[in-house]
Amino acid sequence: MHLPWVLLLLSIGVTILVGTDASITPTTMFTTTNTTKPGCQRKCGNLTIPYPFGIGNGCYFRDVFAIRCNTSYNPPKAFALTGFDPDEIYPEILEMTENQVIIRNTAVTSRCYDSRGIETSYIEGSLGMQGSPYSVSNTNKLTVIGCDEYALISGSTEITNDEKAGCIALCNLEVDQVVTQGSCLGSGCCQTSVLTGWQGFHITLTSLDGRRSFTNQSCSYAFFARNGSFVFGGASDLTSNTSVVLNRIMQQVPVVLDWSASADLSCDYAKNSSTSYEPYACQSNSQCIDNTNMLGYRCRCLPGYEGNPYLEPGCTDFNECAAGPNNPCISTAVCANNPGSYICSCPSGYSGDGKKSGSGCVKNIDTSSSSLKKITLGLGISLGAMLLLLVGWWMSSVIRKRRIKKQKATNFKRNGGFLLQQHMATDESAVARIKIYTFDELERATDHFNEDRVLGKGGQGIVYKGMLGEGRIVAIKLCKVIDEESQRIDLINELVIVSQINHRNIVKLLGCCLESESPLLIYEYIPNGTLSDHLHCPRDDFQITWKMRLQIASDSAGALAYLHSSSSIPIFHRDIKSCNILLDDRYRAKISDFGTSKSISIDQTHVSTRVMGTFGYLDPEYFLLGQFTDKSDVYSFGVVLVELLTGQKAIRSALKEDRSLTQWFLSQMENCRIENSRLLDIVDSQVLHEGSKEEFLIIANIAKRCLNPDGKGRPIMKEVLLEIEAVMSLHLPKAKEEVWPKSEQMVIVSTDSDGFTSSTTSTFYLENSSLSSAEASLLFNAT
Ligand code: ATP
Ligand code: MG
């Protein structure tokens, strides 16, 4: 009945207590820390005694650390003070480590039986260490050798009492047949670990109930000692003489004790309640470590420090770099010692911790040079791209410029530029007279041919107002595109003719541009519009008076007379009409538009062409015969005179009958002859009261003669001019009218830097005005 209960109990005890705390394991022997207090005995026999242990007064930390060195042995033996009883047998110290003390095992329990199975001896072993810094280590094992025998081990800590564990040794065979050899295999022996922390233990051996009787005498043993140390001898262990086995145990299996600076204080408590009786043990540069499965604490040098943490002044810096080639840095790294640590510096171009145990030194990826490379590459690519763009842009602009140049050359050729060049080559003065402008210049002058700059549109093109670079205001005529050779000749013809003319009453041609698609002609700018505008679209605030009309008639007649007979080569205008008579700032007439003009040799009387001109002004003889003579211009001038006199348009569009002003006028004149008073009916009502009937009659008669269907019956322009001037003198009796002498009308072609005469002519114009100063001022006021 008792055996199962005991087995259960033992198994529970074993279950609770088995399992070791690996954190407290014997560590290396004191090597660097095996320092004894200065002035104290360092060794006892072969054993070094490190502080806090010591031999002799003042050489240990506290009394409990005192070591007795018995020199009666050879070599002397050290004994630990494990209790306060001076009569107690102190255990012999075999080894001392940083946290453990190994002592000789004397606590063995044994029991012997004779061959009849009767007990002959029983000795109990125990170890007492209460109050000492020692405790029994978990690394020990409870070992039992015997048959049908169980051992109980009991111990207590500072806070627990009578903890127990046990182990049963059974034998299936006879005692002398137990085969356990070298290690415990379960028959005739038993081993178990025990979770202790005990400050001492006591072992008992008990025979199992109903223990079998063995034929041989035998003994049983139980001990708690360093694991693995005992070499099992098999049956001989049970049958041999007790003293032999006990001696083997004492020699082979020591007991491992853990030691602490204090048996019962924690780090915090020891630090804060340090007393002279139990001062805090850990010196500088050391750390305090609480025991894990029992009370008490230990000291340990901080990492990077060495020495005895219990001995003043404490741990000292460990120079890791002093180990030469064995230092912790890899060979390429430079080792530099620090208090408590060290640094391994990698050579330049390498990075890492430089430690053998760490990442070592790794060659740097040369980020600076690689980024430099990237920057250089990026710059190169962008520069290359920019260069390509620039080259592309430059090439395209070169190609564009070439194309434009080619186009300009084509235009120049098409517009008769070569013809003009031929003229200029034969006539040197033409070079001075005709300035050739570039298209760009004229584009700038007209703000890219802005619609707002258009002065008017005619049959031959559009006229723009423009300002040249030098600030000169000009009229730029953008002619229609020239397609035919005849048109080209006509244009150059006009250019050459007009460039030769320099008369105050003829619009000056300043130059041309032939490199654009349509040729461009540059004229002096005449500010006050056309005679046609003033006659047929009169403004309310200003009207042309009879005197001004006479002056305009005189100016125009003078210009035509000059063209017909006074200029070096007779020129026929061929398109005289009120639209082509422009009025300058003083309302003096300037004949424009020489697009259809023809110069003829002196002995030539006419030019044969296809009929050109404007309906209403066209000479019927020229219309019929196709021969244009100076009298054709006289006819057209006659129409203008009738316009001036009657204020009516050349084509009286509103009327169905007598649509032609000429026809109507001539019929009216016929009636006048019959009934003289009817003349005043045809005179423009606006000027009717400004002139005398005689004046009107003379002008009407001049016009009538100009409109003679037979050209030969028409007067020449010089006669017309004289007659008009005569009328003017009639109208202005105070001012003795001067007829401009022929020589003065012919202004000698002189050129300024631009190749044109402008200021000299205008001075001449004022000085030689056919108006008296009073009349001139009258005219100016009217403007
Ligand atoms: P056509 O083509 O039959 O002669 P047009 O005389 O009306 O008709 P353009 O000679 O081309 O046509 O002139 C157009 C308009 O431009 C004119 O009516 C006039 O108002 C204006 N103009 C022409 N030359 C000048 C100039 N030198 N200064 C100021 N305005 C001008
Ligand atoms: Mg015109």
Give short descriptive properties of this protein.
six-stranded mixed beta sheet, alpha+beta, binds magnesium ion, 21% strand, Laminin, single chain, six-stranded antiparallel beta sheet, 783 residues, 6 domains, binds adenosine-5'-triphosphate, rod-shaped, disordered N terminus, 20 helices
Physical arrangement of strands within the biggest beta sheet: 3-4-5-6-17-10
Helicity range of the residues?
Answer: 25-40%
Overall strand count? 37
Q: In total, how many domains does the architecture comprise?
A: 6
The unreliable regions are: 1-32, 733-783
The CATH class of the largest domain: Mainly Alpha
Computed Rg: 72 Å
Question: Helix count?
Answer: 20
- Biggest β-sheet strands, sense, barrel: 6 strands, antiparallel
Terminus-to-terminus distance: 157 Å
The ligands found in this model are:
adenosine-5'-triphosphate, magnesium ion
Structural class determined from secondary elements: alpha+beta
CATH architecture of the largest domain: Orthogonal Bundle
Q: Which descriptor suits the 3D outline?
A: rod-shaped
Mean pLDDT: 79
Topology-level CATH name of the largest domain:
Transferase(Phosphotransferase), domain 1
What is the CATH superfamily label of the largest domain? Transferase(Phosphotransferase) domain 1
- Proportion of beta-strand residues: 15-25%
Brief digest:
By secondary structure, the protein is an alpha+beta fold. The chain has 20 helices and 37 strands.
